[in-house]
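quick one
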Amino acid sequence: MSAGRLTLAVQKSGRLAEGGFDLLKQSGVKLAYARDALMRRAENVPLDLMLIRDDDIPSFVASGSCGCGIVGENVLAEAAARSPRVAGLEIVQRLGFARCTLKLAAPLEGPVQSVADLEGRAIATSYPALTAKFLQERGIMAEIVEMGGSVEVAPRMKIADAICDLVSTGATLEANGLAAFETVLESEAVLIANPEALNGGGATLDLLVERFKGVIASRQTKYILLNAPKDRLDEIRAVLPGADAPTVAPVVGRDDVVAIHAVCTEEVFWSTLEQIKAAGGRSILVLPIEKMMA
Ligand SMILES: Nc1ncnc2c1ncn2[C@@H]1O[C@H](COP(=O)(O)OP(=O)(O)OP(=O)(O)O)[C@@H](O)[C@H]1O
Ligand SMILES: O=P(O)(O)OC[C@H]1O[C@H](OP(=O)(O)OP(=O)(O)O)[C@H](O)[C@@H]1O
Ligand SMILES: [Mg+2]
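structure w/ PRP:
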């Protein structure tokens, strides 16, 4: 670890790696080429990436081996429930990708349909500490069966009566005849840091956070252009998501029509465009915004 260079722990491969590398690239961080390397050096920022399994990221940051890391809140919370040092780590920035939910689920129409039904039952999970904490808070006594993955098969294999696992679309639960009945934790990727292990790279961390914020904001921000009847301007403004003060400009040769330009700070759904069209909006364009800075 050379002095002045910040070390960032990133998952070697998987969902967090994909999202993490995309975010770094969009933030202008250029990585030097390295084949199969476990360390990647940034060319234009004093930053080194350490590529490891996501489960190891909280302890690497807590021990000071890395100054900061990108990890799922689910993995962070599980590690924090086991280690006070990890529990003391700071979430510097929420990153808005790898969104998923840790849920309790059980076979459809089986004996477990609620948290109370878990009393005396067996629950399979890769998150034993979070599951135990949840059960303790609810005053439920149950057996926890730890599994490394493929947790959804446990009820069918008669290893457990219920599971506590990650859900995103719900397709895996459905494919295994399971239904969720309780949320234990909402999760997304987060940037964590250990202020004592920045190795003189505090300014680099601040720069990364500012750029990440800009990328995250631009991802959910869109630029909308459309033509609208002058007399329905208020109606259209009311449905533009999160638009503050749109620019309204004349359209050459048309006294009854205006052009509207607006920056929308919330997601623009198809249903929004349908509402705009119903209010007389025409030639509607939704454009991505590449970079933003407040
Ligand atoms: N189905 C999903 N949809 C969205 N995010 C998910 C989903 N499943 C997991 N995640 C998030 O992505 C993180 C990484 O998931 P991934 O499957 O890549 O990890 P892994 O198999 O544990 O990888 P590793 O080899 O690094 O241990 C999870 O900890 C969670 O935060
Ligand atoms: O609700 P869904 O969209 O179906 O996603 C949920 C599944 O995704 C993850 O598994 P992954 O695909 O990473 O496989 P793994 O169990 O081998 O980790 C998670 O452990 C669930 O099994
Ligand atoms: Mg893992």
